[in-house]
Amino acid sequence: MTVQTINTTPFSDQKPGTSGLRKRVTVWQQPNYVENYIQAIFDSLEGFAGQTLVIGGDGRFYNDVAIQKAIRIAAANGFGRVLVGQGGLLSTPAASNIIRHYQAFGGLVLSASHNPGGPDGDFGIKYNIGNGGPAPEKITDAVFARSKVIDSYKSEDTPDIDLGTIGTQKVGDMTVEVIDPVTDYAALMQTLFDFDAIRALFAGGFRMTFDAMHAVTGPYAHAILEGILGAPKGTVINGVPSPSFNDGHPDPNLVYCKDMFDLLMTEAGPDFGAASDGDGDRNLIIGKNRFVTPSDSLALLAANAHLAPGYKGGIAGIARSMPTSAAADRVAEKLGIEMHETPTGWKFFGNLLDAGRVTICGEESAGTGSDHVREKDGLWAVLLWLNILAVRKQGVDQIVREHWATYGRNYYTRHDYEEVDAAIANALVDDLRGRLASLPGQVFDGLEVAYADDFTYHDPVDGSTSAKQGIRIGFTDGSRIVLRLSGTGTVGATLRLYLERYEPADGNHDLDTQSALQPLIELCERLAGVKARTQRTEPSVIT
Ligand code: G6P
Ligand code: ZN
């Protein structure tokens, strides 16, 4: 076997977004597209000769092809060992754990998360560093710069590697170890949660349904929920990963999990419903008659984390992305711990977690996690909820209501306008940005603007600055409008509007969310003109 150096020409569009490079499969299928990107990543790193690289993905279409290329390029570039999940599978949080557990140099996570898969769907590649988390902007910027000038890549000339059998083989001078994707992750979960209490909960007749959405969490959920924790067979549905996610959209929200939601709203339904996305890092939590918004879930998990053995000493601090509601801030305030507001993207939590300044992090986009790995973790959130339910011996609805009665309720919604013409979306944001300075002090329908800015994050750990992270307009009563462009869309631009209103502990917590936020929704339209300028009558998705 020999190392080949193959000439190539650069692509201009290999700029990593919020979470790695995500493109249509047809884009990745262009000759050398995968090779260029992986070589650009390796060219942006130093000191990996002889080190370990973790590779795994969510099993979507093109995973198998890209993994073979990745292993060949890793071998030719001098990595000493690759750890790869059997069948090429690793959930994103499991990949993060494996990088940390085996002290790997880094890892390649092959996924487009919750985006649809299949030949017409999306594919993605993300590089994670040695702490197990997504590469910081310093690295992703370097990868993009390199991708624009790359003129060759290295590849080991070798037949396809067998990823179906657990064991060790050689590719050139590099060792390839095919490992079970679930074992290490399940062991980690056992150290964090009171599995006996959760087992007793199921044994006592508690019923849940977990929708793996034909994606990567199927094997993990079968093994942990039905295997180790003794939940009845059938608790996990859609548990066999499929390259096209059975032609579905593996995003655990109320649109794509509507059937589960409807079931949980009936008396005959189970006590608890949950789901995870394509690569296993997002979560959806629904109790009987109670959907828990991701922002509320973050606050609730932070407030109750001490009930799980892994967090019994308390948590050091909480971090949330800027558009996530301020519900968690009130918990941090009461606990007297640090609270951090970061830009959208899990990578921004990495430094805070590494420095031990925060223990629990969360985003409105259905991501919650802790310092156990450096990615958000869907099953972790589900298990923490189960641990809390088992200890408190209350239902989700009761726990949520008691939380609001203590901290108040942050009514919250997100309106997405997808596949908007990029020029229109950019102009809209630029215009609004230009008017921000004039807003503070102005009163609109009784709402006084307290501040208006484009969020700039100053990382308190490494001192780096990230500007233009989203427009925030805050009002004196605690309400807030946030507007930003998604960094994960693959076609046109996606405009996201985030609306939030605070209702105190003794206020009315039973309003319909959209009605409670209607005045803010109208004001947002007045200020930004999203419907008028995009010529849409309503959002593509409301969460
Ligand atoms: C991915 C990232 C998250 C992010 C989400 C939404 O899931 O891992 O950190 O919150 O995308 O990002 P977007 O830029 O589309 O709002
Ligand atoms: Zn995901």
Automatic annotation (TrEMBL):
Gene Ontology cellular-component annotations: cytosol
Record's keyword terms, sorted: Isomerase, Magnesium, Metal-binding, Phosphoprotein
Domain Alpha-D-phosphohexomutase alpha/beta/alpha: 14-152, 185-286, 295-407
EC number per UniProt: 5.4.2.2
Catalytic activity: alpha-D-glucose 1-phosphate = alpha-D-glucose 6-phosphate
Matches recorded under Pfam families: PGM1_C_vert_fung, PGM_PMM_I, PGM_PMM_II, PGM_PMM_III
Named cofactor requirement(s): Mg(2+)
GO terms of molecular function: magnesium ion binding; phosphoglucomutase activity
Enzyme class label: isomerase
Biological-process GO terms, alphabetical: carbohydrate metabolic process
Family per record: Belongs to the phosphohexose mutase family.
Protein name in UniProt: phosphoglucomutase (alpha-D-glucose-1,6-bisphosphate-dependent)
Organism: Devosia equisanguinis
This protein's encoding gene: pgm
